């Protein structure tokens, strides 16, 4: 071993021996703490049985104005979804024709425009969905149950999900 490392090794051994002596002094102290439960850890309480869940109440009827607004939003979403569905065939044909085409080719541009038209119809459905979400949140904040609004919102959400799946498929086909 190199002579320059010997003093460092000796110093490290002394520090280690000192640490061991100090720790052993702590261990030899009388009166180890008990591992038994302390009073604060003992279980005691005054629990009461839970009250039964509230009985479901019949949905509160919507005001005539809110019913009319709900019907208008669902009708607008239904009409936009119908236009989307009608344009799906054209976009399907055009995206199939653009499969593998160069990005700026005629087939790719025409298919991209058809997809943009479908996305425009989807955005109209999304606007209705956003307004339904707003109505639902307002109804819940005001203490209503929002069951009728939630049902309409669920229907529009299903249309949006269907449209999203169609658009994803068509976009994927154009990338292939």
TrEMBL record:
Keywords: Signal. It comes from the Bacteria. Residues 1-27 form the signal peptide. This is Uncharacterized protein. It comes from Novosphingobium aquae. The lineage of its organism: Bacteria, Pseudomonadati, Pseudomonadota, Alphaproteobacteria, Sphingomonadales.
């Amino acid at each position: 071993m190199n002579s320059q490392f010997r003093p460092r090794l000796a110093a490290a051994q002394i520090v280690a021996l000192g640490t061991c002596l100090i720790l052993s002094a702590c261990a030899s102290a009388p009166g180890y703490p008990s591992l038994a439960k302390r009073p604060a850890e003992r279980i005691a309480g005054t629990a009461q049985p839970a009250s039964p869940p509230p009985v479901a109440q019949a949905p509160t009827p919507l005001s005539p104005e809110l019913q009319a607004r709900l019907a208008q939003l669902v009708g607008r979403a239904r009409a936009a979804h119908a236009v989307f569905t009608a344009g799906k065939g054209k976009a399907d044909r055009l995206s199939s024709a653009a499969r593998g085409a160069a990005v700026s080719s005629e087939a790719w541009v025409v298919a991209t425009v058809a997809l943009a038209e479908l996305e425009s119809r989807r955005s109209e459905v999304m606007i209705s969905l956003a307004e339904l979400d707003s109505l639902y949140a307002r109804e819940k904040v005001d203490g209503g149950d929002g069951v009728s609004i939630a049902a309409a919102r669920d229907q529009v959400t299903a249309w949006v999900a269907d449209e999203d799946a169609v658009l994803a498929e068509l976009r994927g086909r154009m990338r292939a």
